[in-house]
Amino acid sequence: MATLTVFEAGYCTHIACMALRGAGFSVCRFPARAWLIETARGRWLWDTGYASHFLDHTRHGVFAWYRRVTPVHFNAGDALAWQLRERGLSANDLTAVILSHFHGDHIAGLRDLQGAPTCLSGAGWNATRSLRGIRALRKGFVPGLIPPDFETSMTAVETFDRVALPAELAPFTHAYAVPGSDGELLIVELPGHAAGHLGAFVATAQGWVMLASDAAWSPAAYRNLVGPSRLTHAIMDDATQYYDTLHKLNQLDRQKNVKILLTHEGAL
Ligand SMILES: [Zn+2]
How far apart are CA 166 and CA 176, in angstroms? Predict the structure, then answer.
C-alpha cells in the first residue's frame, strides 16, 4: 500500500471570501502543500510548493502583480528540496515529480529538483507552454520557473494506461494508471481551476485518499457547493467545468469511502 507524507513549502495570504464566497474579509493563510507518495516500487512527488525561484521571478515587471495579489511567505528552509534532503532524499531518488497544474505555487520548486522526470497533463502543458507576459500572468503561469530541458524529461499522463476505477470511487469512472505504481496511484482529470488540472487517487493502508489539488480551497466548497468569489472566476480556466468538478467531489465526499485532501485547505 502507498504511504503519503505531506509537506508545506511556504504559504500565501489572501482574503477569505476570495477563496470561498461569503467567508468574509479576514486575511487567511493558505499553505502550499506537496505530498511524497511512496509505494513498494516507486517514489513520486505531487507538486513542489513555493521556492526561492518564485520570489526571484516575481520581483519585477508584470509578474510582481502575482505577489501583490497573493503575498507569499517563504523561508529558505521551507524549500521542498531542502525538506527532502533532511530526509536523505534528492531529486535522483524520485521516480517522478507529478504536477497537478502550472500555477506558480505548484511548480516553483522544479528548478531545485532537476534530474527528476516530470509527469503532467499534456493538454494542459500545450495550452500553457507558450504563454508569456500578461497572458501568462492571467493564467498564474510564471515562465521563468520552468527549468531548462524541462520538455526532454516530461511525460504526459495521457500516455499512461487508462483504467476503470472501482465503484467506491464513483462518480469518477476512469483514471490514468501511473506506471510502476501497481495501481496504487491513479490520476484523474479535475478540469476547471486551471488548464490540465489533475488529481490523484492513492491507495493507502487506511483506504483511498484523493489528492484534489486546487479543485477547491476549502472542504466547505465541495460540501456546500459554494465557489470562490466572482472576482476569482476571472482567473479560472473554465468556470462551468470548475463547478462540474466541485459536484463530483461533493458526490465522492458523501459516499465517505475516500479522504479528500486539498493543497491549500486549513484556513476556511
Ligand atoms: Zn492553482
Answer: 13
Mean pLDDT, rounded, for 78-100: 97
- pTM of the entire predicted model: 0.95
Which CATH fold topology does 3-261 show? Metallo-beta-lactamase; Chain A (3.60.15)
How close is the Cα of 32 to the center of ligand 1, in Å? 10
Distance 95 CA to ligand 1 centre (A): 23
* Cα 139 to ligand 1 centroid, rounded to whole Å: 9
What's the gap in Å between 193 CA and the centre of ligand 1?
7
Ligand 1 center from residue 141 Cα (angstroms): 10
Residue list, CB under 5 A from ion ligand 1? 103, 214
Candidates 145, 140, 245, 149; CA nearest to 194 is 140
Q: Distance from the CA of 195 to the center of ligand 1, in angstroms?
A: 10
Give 170-193 pLDDT, tens digit per residue.
999 999 999 999 999 999 999 999
Domain range summary for the chain, segments of one domain joined by +: 3-261
Ligand 1 centroid to Cα of residue 225, in Å, is 18
Confidence (pLDDT) at 14: 79
Ligand 1 centroid, distance to 166 Cα (angstroms)? 28
C-alpha triplet 205, 113, 118: angle, nearest 5°: 65
Q: Which helix (H) or strand (E) holds 37?
A: strand 27-38
Q: How far is CA 172 from CA 3, 134, 204, 240, in A?
A: 22, 35, 18, 18
**Pairing mode of beta strands 118-120, 96-98:** parallel
Confidence of residue 235 (pLDDT cuts 50, 70, 90): confident
Over 70: is that where the pLDDT of 19 sits?
A: no
pLDDT at 205: 97
User: Mind listing the pLDDT tens digit for each residue in 126-143?
Assistant: 999 999 999 999 999 999
